[in-house]
Amino acid sequence: MCADPIRRFLDERNPPTPCLVVDTDVVAARAREFRSAFPGALIRYAVKANPAPPVLDALVAAGIGFDVAGPAELALCLERGADPADLAYGNPIKKPRDIAYAFERGVREFTSDAPGDVDHLGRYAPGSAVSIRVVLDAPDSVTPFGRKFGCDPAEAFDLVLRAAALGLRPGLAFHVGSQQPDVSAWEIGIATAAKLFEEAAAQGVEMTRLNLGGGFATTHRVPVPSLDAYAATIASALETHFPANPPELLLEPGRVLVADAGLLRTEVVLVAHRSGRRWVYLDIGRYNGLAEAENEAIAYRFEPVGAAGPAGPVVLAGPTCDGDDVLYQRTPYELPLSLRTGDRVDLPGTGAYTASYASVGFNGIEPLRTYCVGRWGDV
Ligand SMILES: *Cc1c(COP(=O)(O)O)cnc(C)c1O
Fold it and tell me: Which ligand 1 atom is at minimum distance from the Cα of 90?
């Protein structure tokens, strides 16, 4: 009925809602595009964006490495055939025994942002590469990290020297915040890094590795810069700030490799009118897959499957008994006035940070089920 493999699967199999369907061929295509936008860079997919095994399989086949946050993600990547040399342990918050486990499994690339963690790395991951994560005075992303991660440049400098003294191989890292539509954020990061590279060199510590993190945005309702636009800004910032010897780059894309590959199908549970507004309750909400609707930060697209005709404003809410399980009450949305219980609504571009964020059984609702289609599919 439909050429798109995701919609074909939904039409033919009509799986229970809500569900996420991911096209692994699209994941592979995004990986190829990303690689050609950043030739020569080491690419480490941030597994937390979507850890479905077929997604990892498509990325392993595309020659992409992985950014893991802990032992479970690490073990999963190895199980799917990733080479430990292509893994980076990018979470600055980690237990000493998890560092030891990663080292024992062959991981030699870490990120750190505090003296205690650098010391743990020196002890449990001797000789490894460690990128010191610096916090930037950059524009806020749609989902900013706040002050949880990264140290200021002066402390980063101390940590670089500390890491070198412990026999680690220091580099620098930054992360501009997820869903970052402002390409200038990377310019600020690269300028900050270049200064630190120079200062460290003056102390006899030659750094070679710069980790530019993730943050590349994907389009929902508002268009975002193209991959080429990000790449062009990054290339020109590197030319400006590292004119003599450009660093070896490491990139940790998450969302941008998987978001467009996924479509979430949901069903209308109830339509009700409250204080003059039309509320549409869906079987998907903040606790079973749309966590990123918190503060209405990410505004997904909602496409009715059958319902048509004139549209009117709606408040969108999830199915649970939690008062915070409201998706959008400030962001304007319109859906057909004919929309009824049982109608299906599709959310395209939802392959990232949906299934991986679903709770395991709040109100007895099971975590968002993922079906993968395409060459690496599991259905
Ligand atoms: C989550 C995360 C990423 C991926 O971020 P995206 O915005 O999805 O690209 C990359 N690096 C680290 C350390 C992360 O925590």
Answer: 13
